[in-house]
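Structure first, sequence second, as always.
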């Protein structure tokens, strides 16, 4: 068995990073953790107004390559407080209403965390012939307050952001489980690439921009902003994709990807083919297992934001297969995590200074 590239320091950082809440629009505490971990492996940092963080290697180089993940997690906002002290919510990102009932939540206020629960009528009280499914209009949070006044006295108001507290753990030795693996794992993996480059004393002929973008979950917003700031020549983006081997998923529609079988390399209009070919060659030459996926008009990831910025940036997507996306029990395989890191690392080492990836050169 090959030696793991994830060391004790890496795993300690990963656990702390995942357990920290970083909902869309409120990513800064997680970004500070990420920057502190990355600091020994980069030359300088760039940050922007909304919280995207970038560790830069060779900041004076003219040719620029981005490796990127995103930092935010799905969440809820308090939208309405009833007279008897219950809270109704709206989404902040693609939060799944069907998993909400009976979940414990953290409500973030200026006074600190207020605990609550998504309540649901007991099975004994429901009409089983006309059962109502959970939906955004009927799920609600109970924080134990007797009325609206007490809610407000606890520091809870319309606009407070709500996250789940579910923390990192490992199933069966090699399955990482947590909320927000989508896509805190991306930020972790690109940071590990920077660590390996430093520890292996690799000198790059270009500037490498190790990027952890914000606000992906509401439309790739952080990537749009930072792409304009960096103006890169190439971008390798990593995100998660669905393991389609679990029940109730149609492989004819979703394709076939499975945790434990390697990174997933995307085929899509936004994916620049010569850059993708370079990544596939890096995988084949280094015996890194990989899978393929075909995407339609858009990848739905920050790849799209980079690809179509600045008159066009050669961009590619390497995805980490994941089970149970946008739940609190997202699951990935440790070997896939390591192989995504290896694949980005080996791909970066193959890029030449000034490479255009154009088919017309």
């Amino acid at each position: 068995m090959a030696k793991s590239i994830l060391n004790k320091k890496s795993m300690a950082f990963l656990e702390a990073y995942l357990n920290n809440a970083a909902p869309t629009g409120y990513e800064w505490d997680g970004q500070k953790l990420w920057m502190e971990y990355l600091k020994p492996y980069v030359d300088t940092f760039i940050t922007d107004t909304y919280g995207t963080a970038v560790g830069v290697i060779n900041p004076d180089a003219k040719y620029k390559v981005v490796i990127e993940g995103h930092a935010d997690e799905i969440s809820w906002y308090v939208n309405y407080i009833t007279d008897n002290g219950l809270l109704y919510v709206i989404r902040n990102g693609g939060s799944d209403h069907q998993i909400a009932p009976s979940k414990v939540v953290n409500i973030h206020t200026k006074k600190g965390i207020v605990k609550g629960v998504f309540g649901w009528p007991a099975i004994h009280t429901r009409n089983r012939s006309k059962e109502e499914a959970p939906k955004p209009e009927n799920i609600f949070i109970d924080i134990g307050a007797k009325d609206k006044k007490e809610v407000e006295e606890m520091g809870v108001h319309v606009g407070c952001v709500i996250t789940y507290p579910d923390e990192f753990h490992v199933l069966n030795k090699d399955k990482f489980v947590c909320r927000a693996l989508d896509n805190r794992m991306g930020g972790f993996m690109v940071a590990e690439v920077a660590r390996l480059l430093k520890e292996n004393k690799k000198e790059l002929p270009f500037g490498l921009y190790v990027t952890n973008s914000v606000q992906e979950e509401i439309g790739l917003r952080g990537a749009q902003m930072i792409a304009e700031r960096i103006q890169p020549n190439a971008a390798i983006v990593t995100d998660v994709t669905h393991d389609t081997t679990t029940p109730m998923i149609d492989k004819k529609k979703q394709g076939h990807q499975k945790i434990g079988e390697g990174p997933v390399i995307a085929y899509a209009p936004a994916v620049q083919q010569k850059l993708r070919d370079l990544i596939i060659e890096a995988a084949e030459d280094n015996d890194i297992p990989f899978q393929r996926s075909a995407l339609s008009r858009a990848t739905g990831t920050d790849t799209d934001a980079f690809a179509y910025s600045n008159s066009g940036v050669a961009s590619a997507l390497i995805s980490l297969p994941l089970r149970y996306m946008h739940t609190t029990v997202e699951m990935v395989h440790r070997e896939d995590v390591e192989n995504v890191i290896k694949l980005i690392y080996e791909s970066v080492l193959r890029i030449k200074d000034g490479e255009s990836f154009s088919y017309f050169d």
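Margin note: The chain has a mean pLDDT of 97.
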